[in-house]
Design brief:
- It is a single chain.
- By secondary structure, this protein is mainly α.
- It folds into two domains: 163 residues, UbiA prenyltransferase (Tetracycline Repressor, domain 2, Orthogonal Bundle), CATH 1.10.357; 135 residues.
- The protein is 73% helix and 0% strand.
- It has 14 helices and no strands.
- Helix 2 crosses helix 8, helix 3 packs antiparallel against helix 5 and helix 8 packs antiparallel against helix 9.
- The protein is globular.
- The chain starts with a helix and ends in a 14-residue tail after the last helix.
């Protein structure tokens, strides 16, 4: 095996596309915080740490699901563990190195035990609670298991501010509400694979009709959340009052998501679900990019505070 192939297999262990989303949503929290949004000399340890946290959790996930991955057409050849290109001890070492490096960078760059604690919680929750306990036992695995995928903003905010406030919690909730309709659209496509591996995903346990119904109603909750959560926290998060791009896109794209999921449900199972799955990725990416743009515009146009002369005071 060439070095390039080995490195690519390591990246596959990290599920680098999913991990990149966590990095992006984490950076969104930094942009909203505002103080270090463009200081990448300050931010690089955090951004690397966010990727390593997701990589460590996803590597453990693939170790624990090795036998299941070997039964699924989608994963048995593509992933390096069931194909034998990387051994289990190598994967364990890779996961541990990623976790320790992430913790070290968070301490070296920010001295934030809170960020380190949240990072370790993410790894443990996803790899042990979700993968080993929840996923093999109940179709609600995706709903409850959505927590670690939404942790990027909390870790990032904790690193730069050493606290958790309303802002990162709102970002967390948006990602958490988005996860079920996003994953279930893919799960319908992979229903037979999940059944073969004995994984009780919603389409396997409840059927495609019920899954499309759940997708629609969870989409309703998600869209309401993207619009209502900012309004509920406006007094705590003034940037929402200056977020015209985000608001417009949340309305338009949310309307498209709702209409699409409604048609999918009512015409089940005629329409394919993968286009909706791909649109859901565009949806959340565009919303978070809009938040970054609005936050940047808000900081650039903020008027400097000018002392108001007191009557009778000399100028």
């Amino acid at each position: 095996m060439s070095v390039a192939s080995f490195v690519m297999d390591l990246l596959v262990l990290t599920k680098y596309r999913i991990t990149a989303v966590a990095l992006f949503t984490g950076y969104t929290a930094v942009a909203l915080h505002g103080q270090h949004a463009t200081d990448f000399g300050y931010l690089w340890p955090l951004l690397v740490s966010l990727f390593l946290v997701g990589g460590s959790a996803n590597t453990l996930n693939q170790i624990f699901e090795l036998e299941k991955d070997a039964k699924m057409e989608r994963t048995k050849a593509r992933r390096p563990l069931p194909s034998g290109r990387i051994t289990v001890p190598q994967a364990y070492a890779f996961s541990i190195i990623q976790a320790l490096t992430a913790a070290g960078l968070l301490w070296w760059g920010y001295h934030s035990l809170l960020a380190i604690g949240l990072a370790l919680f993410t790894i443990i929750y996803y790899s042990f609670f979700y993968t080993l306990f929840l996923k093999p036992r109940h179709w609600l695995n995706i709903v409850i298991g959505g927590v670690p995928g939404a942790m990027g903003p909390l870790i990032a905010w904790a690193a730069v501010a050493n606290e958790i406030t309303a802002e990162p919690l709102v970002l967390f909730m948006i990602i958490f509400l988005w996860t079920p309709p996003h994953v279930w659209a893919l799960a319908i496509k992979l229903k037979d694979d999940y059944a073969k591996a004995g994984i009780p995903m919603l389409p396997v346990v409840k059927g495609v009709d019920e899954t499309t119904r759940q997708i629609f109603w969870y989409t309703v909750v998600m869209v309401i959340g993207t619009l209502a959560l900012p309004a509920c926290t406006a007094s705590l998060w003034p940037v929402w009052e200056r977020s015209p791009l985000y608001t417009a896109l949340a309305v338009v794209l949310g309307g498209v998501f709702l209409a699409w999921s409604w048609i999918l449900w009512r015409r089940r199972p005629i329409l394919p679900t993968m286009p909706l799955f791909r649109f859901s990725i565009v949806y959340v990416s565009v919303l978070f990019l809009a938040l970054i743009i609005d936050a940047s515009a808000s900081s650039h146009h903020a008027a400097p505070s000018v002392p108001v002369p007191v009557q009778g005071q000399s100028r």
